[in-house]
Structure formats: C-alpha cells, structure tokens
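Tutorial handout. Part one gives the primary structure; part two gives the three-dimensional structure as tokens.
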Amino acid sequence: MRLRLAIELGLTEFAGKVLQTHTADITNYDIDIDYSPLVTSVCKGHENVVRLLVQLGADTPAMYAFHSGDESITAAFLPYMKSTGAITNALIWAIESEAQASHAVRLILKHPMLDVNDKTRANGTALYFACTKVRPDLVDMLLRAGADENILHNQSRNPQGLDAGRNVLHTLARGYMQGQHLEACDEDVKRCVELVFAVGVNVHQVDARGNTALHGAKDATAVRRLLDAGADANATNQFGEIPLHKCRDDNIFKLLTERNDINAKSKGGRTPLVSLLANSHKVDTQSYARALEQALQLMKVGADVTLTDDQGNSALHHAVRMEHTGKHGLPFLEALIASGADVNLRNNQGEIPLHTIEPKACAGLQENVLTTLINTKADTEAGENKGRSPLMSFVDCLENSSPEDVVALFKKMVEVGALLDTTDSTGRTLLHATTPHCRGDTAPLRYLADHGVDPTQTDKEGNTLWHIAIPRFCSWRVLPNAFYEIAALGVHPRTPNKRGQSPLHVVCSFRQWAWQKASKSGKEDFPTIFDYIVAAQEDVDCPDDDGVTGLHLASTFAEDMVSILLSKGADPSRATHEELTPLHLAARSRQANIMGHLLDSLRAAKSPDAFLATIDATDSLGRTALYYACASGRAESVAVLLDHGATLDSVSFTGSAWSGCADFEEEQSTPGWHRFQKKWAPLKMGSLTREASWSSTHGDLHLARP
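Part two.
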C-alpha cells in the first residue's frame, strides 16, 4: 500500500525507503485486477521511480514503456535492451504510440545496436509501421536514418519467381492496418507518399496475389498521388482483376474510371460491372445503394452491359439476384435494359435473367422486379438446360418458404402469363416440384390441382408425386396430414413407376430422419413417412422389375426398417433375379445385426433343413452369404453365420468362404462400399447398368462379376 502511494505521487525517495524493507512489494500484486508497480510508474510518467524499480529488479514490461511515447521513460528503458531485435521492437512500439512519440523515436534511432531495416517484428520494418500510422514526421526521420522504402512486408515469391510482398505504398493506399481503418489527414497521407516517392519507392510492386497498391486501395489521396506517379490503373493480379474490379470507395471509383479499361475481364470473365453486381447479392441496403450508383457510373463511362462472364451470366443476370430493390433497384434495372441488356439472354445453364431472379421477389416481396422483366418481353416459358421454366426454377429454390408465399408466387406468375401446366425435361410437373417442400400445409398442392395440374401425371420414368417427394420427406419433419392430402389428390401410395419400383422401394432406400439418434426432437409420436407407406401396402414383398423388394433395400443399411418389414410379413428368403437374398446383401453390406434379425426370422419360419438351405443358398455367381461376409472383412458377420450353421466346406473354391477371404482386398476397394454410407450418395439399384430415379442411402444391389 505504501509503495503504491509513493508511485502514485511520484515520491522516488519514499519509494526507495519502502523497498529497502519490503523488496517483495515489487512483484506482490494481483495481475487479474491491478498493474505491476513498474507498469503503474510508466503510465504515470514518473521517470525516476521507473529507474529505481528497474535497478531493484522489477520485471521490465518494455512494450508498455515504449508504447507510452515518453522520451524520459524511453531513456530509462533503453539501456536494458540488449539485442537488435529488442531495439527494433522498442522502435516499433514507440512508433505505434498514440502519443506524439517523435522524440522517443529519435532517441531510439541513436542506439548503436539498431538496424533500422530489421524485420524482427511481424515481418515488417519500422518504416512500414510508420506508414500504417500515416506519420510523415516519423517517416521522414526513418528515411533520413537509412530506412529502405522497398523492403517488402510478408515477402514471398510469386508464380513467376519474382519477389512479391507489400511495400509501404500498399499500406498508405489501404489506410489501415490489422483491420482498423485510420482516418488520416489528407495532407499527412500526401506528405508520406511524397517522402517515399522522393527516395525511389517501387510504384509497381505487387504482393503475393499480384495486387498493386491500387488494388483494394481505400485512401483517395494516396490513389491520386499513385496515379500521378505512373501507377498502372490496368495492372492485373493473379485473378486477372484490375483495381476497378476490387474498388468499392466512391471517390477512388471515380478516379479509376477515368483511367481503367472499363470492360477489362478477370480470369472468371467478369468485367468490373459484372463483378460489382455479382458481389452485391447479399449486402445491407446502404452498400446495395452504393453498388448501384457505382454501376450506373460505369455505364455512363461506357461499360458494355451485354458482356458476360465465363458462366454466361450478364450484368442483368446478377442484378436480378440482388435481395434489395426499392427506389434504387428498379430504376437501375430499367437503365440496364435501356442500355441494351437482353432480358432473354441465356447463360451456360440456359437460364435467362428471369430464371435467376431472387425468389423472394416473385412471392410478392419485390414483385416490381418481376414486372419490370415481364414488361420488357421476358419469356415466362423459356426452358433452361433441364427444361425448367422460370416458375419451376423458383419452386425448386423456395426451400423454406411458407405455403402462403408459394401460393402467392403461383398467382403472381399466372398474372404475368406463366403456365401452370408445364413440365421439365424429365417430365416433372409443378406438382412434382412443389410436393417435396410440403411439411404439413398442402395449400400449394391444392391450388395447382384446382387450376388444372393433374396430380396423377407421372414423369418420364413413371414416377408419381410419392416417388419424388419421399426422399425429402425422409430427411425432415413432415406432418401426417401432408400424406393424407397427397393420397386425397388421387395419388396412390402403391403405384409403381416404369421399373416396377413402388413408393415402398423409395422409402426403404433412405434413412429416416425421425429415427436418427442425433435428432434433437427425439423419436416422433406421429406416423412417419415410412410408417404411412408400409401401412398402405397390400404386399410388402412386391418386387420391382429386377426382383428387388423393400426388404432387400433395407437389409443393406437399416436395422429398424428390417425389423418392421419382417413383422409385416416380408419374406427374408426371397431372392432377386440375380438370386441375391436379403442375407447375401446384409453380409456384403457389413450389417451383422441385420443378419441376426434375418436369421431369427428364417429359423422361426422354416424347418431346420430349409433354414440351413437358405443360409447356404448361392446367388447367380455361386456365392454364399458366408462368402460375402468373409469378403466384407467383418468377423462378426462371419461369426453369426457360423453360429447359425452355415457350411464352411465347399466342393468348389469359387463362391466359397475361402474365396471370400481371397477377395477381401478387392471388395474393400470397390467404390461405394464404405462402412458408413453418406446420405444422398447416388448408388445403383437392382442391376448392373440402371440407376434409381432418386439418390439413396442403401447399399449397392448389383453383382460384381469377375
């Protein structure tokens, strides 16, 4: 307490007497709530107390001392700096001081161990840090002391093998360091730039990404001086971008448009106009308005609105994707179209701008955008590469929209001439596109059905609404009334597609969201889509054209499904047209628990001889379930078969357990047979060549022939 009082009042003699009898007080403080005596002395500016504490062994927090910018404190600490690195740190700390530290800096520059171009700290020199503070007095002082203006910060090699890195011009032009923008006086910036130009700074220096000081510049004064000194306004970085591609400051923007190639393209084929609009899809209202003002400025000085990027997207494609419109957006769209933007220009995906419009604009939130395009003869029935009209594209994008918004979308599009009775290249109708998004309220489905869209119409593969919707219904919460409403539209949950695959085949191909242990909501109390589809079946063993049943599919990955299907009478001994039983498939899919369920069901339903015959049954390649268990590499699968009486001996090596052991490595390298299948992984089902019409989580059902 007495030492603290002496320090607060700057009583050097009294502090010395206290420390003669209480030396421990130098370090006796709580670092969580208080500064050390030395730090407090530095902050108070009591030079003599600082000297006393240092002499008596106080730990020297050099950063605090030199950050103070106080010449006397600096003088007290300097004798204890014993290396070039320590002196460099001291110099940079003094430069970074918020105080006018010119006297402290001048004092450090006189130190005999100082290397003014040392890069010990943060890979930058003292001159670089002085430029980040925009301190012309310090910059001048350092240059007079021999500071090299062309030493690079974060030096590296670019792909051409040349030295790359930021020099002092980069930081002066950016006007900030470590993310904090400095509101520097224009005169200070101008003076700093002139000082480094006077000694020959390289105005064309690029950093590791090829950016010159003009790329990403935020200080208009520095940019103006750089341009006057010959900086290339059309220099490209490694992405092919000129400074105008990256500029977002209004004042700098005006300077660059006077000297830039307005239609220069980056490596992605984007002009500054296209780049500006493409990067403004999701910004705040103020940034959006500024972007449109800059875009208009580009158009006034000759930006070609018909040019497209490498994806075929024009400025209009990007402009209609922007979430904001208001008083700024609509006049801009009108100006863009008046300048020659084609409302029916197709990008590489065959999309016209109407396809790429922000979906919210069509649901009534920004409907004037839609109206603007329609009034300028945009084709409401233009099909993109997948044959989808703009309306169908909107529906596919309305992931989390309310039923009310979807109905509003339909009504608005009908008003402007869109057809509801439309299909894509696969034959999907708007009902096919809309049904997967329903989670309870089926108002959009009823609206379409009431306005002439046939609920029973299938796509080109014969898929009904059930076939298309079930994959999504398996992945999130859907209320049962959605199932009942779909059925009420006349779409039967047993109708197969052209391959003989019923909705049961589809639902048995996907993990059920409601059953996942990781589900935050736990198990659902109401029927899931799986429960509903199974309950609607007259025969759960109904096969498709390849002889595949729901049990065959479920046996490759879903223990719960297998248990339910068996309880509903599914036949565990039924084989596909390739003679694969559920037991073969479970063994190959490394599903020992499922094998246990199947074996228990077989034992209960068959005589001992028939039971053993089923276990040892061979597929069309002569392979047994034991072969697949051995090839799978799962010892537990092998054990469960042997425990239930599977025959180990075989007349032929082909298809035997021994053959399975020999084929282990080949089976492990087979694509798609990882222990944990990914959701939505596209896998073949039922034959060697044909793929399912949906993406599934079940294992592969086809045979790998030698």
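Part three, for discussion. DSSP finds 38 helices and four strands in the chain. The two ends are 89 Å apart (CA to CA).
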